[in-house]
C-alpha cells in the first residue's frame, strides 16, 4: 500500500497557506472536504475572495470588499482553495 499523498516531509497543518506581501493570500484545503473556510487577511486593505475548485478548474467570487477574518461557505469537496486578492477599486 502506498502512503497517503499528504504524508512524509510536508507541512502538517489542516491546510496550506501562502501569501505575497499584503497583495495575495492563498489557502489550499487539499484532501479536506470542508464546508466552511476561514481566512485572516489584513484589515488595512479591502479584498476580493474567490473559491477555486482545482478539479473542476473553476473560480467563483465569494466576497468583495472584505478584510479581517473572512468566513465563506465551501462545497465540501476535496481540491478547494480560497484566494484573497487586494482589490484596488476598493482601496
List keywords for this structure.
single chain, about 90 residues, mainly beta, 5-stranded antiparallel β-sheet
Structure, explained:
The protein has 91 residues and is mainly β. It is built from no helices and 7 strands. The chain has strands at 16-20, 24-28, 36-41, 47-53, 58-66, 68-73, 80-86. The strands form 2 sheets. It has a 5-stranded antiparallel sheet with strand order 1-2-7-4-5, with no helix packed on it. A two-stranded antiparallel sheet has the order 3-6. It is globular, with a radius of gyration of 14 Å.
Uncertain residue segments: 1-13
Structural class: mainly beta
Through-space gap between termini = 52 Å
CATH architecture: Sandwich
Task: Report the strand count.
Answer: 7
The CATH C-level class name = Mainly Beta
At CATH level 3, the topology is: Immunoglobulin-like
Task: Give the strand order, joined by hyphens, for the main sheet.
Answer: 1-2-7-4-5
Number of domains: 1
Shape type = globular
Q: What's the quick description here?
A:
With about 90 residues, the chain is an all-beta fold. The chain has no helices and seven strands.
Topology:
Elements: E1 16-20, E2 24-28, E3 36-41, E4 47-53, E5 58-66, E6 68-73, E7 80-86
Antiparallel strand pairs: 1-2, 2-7, 3-6, 4-5, 4-7
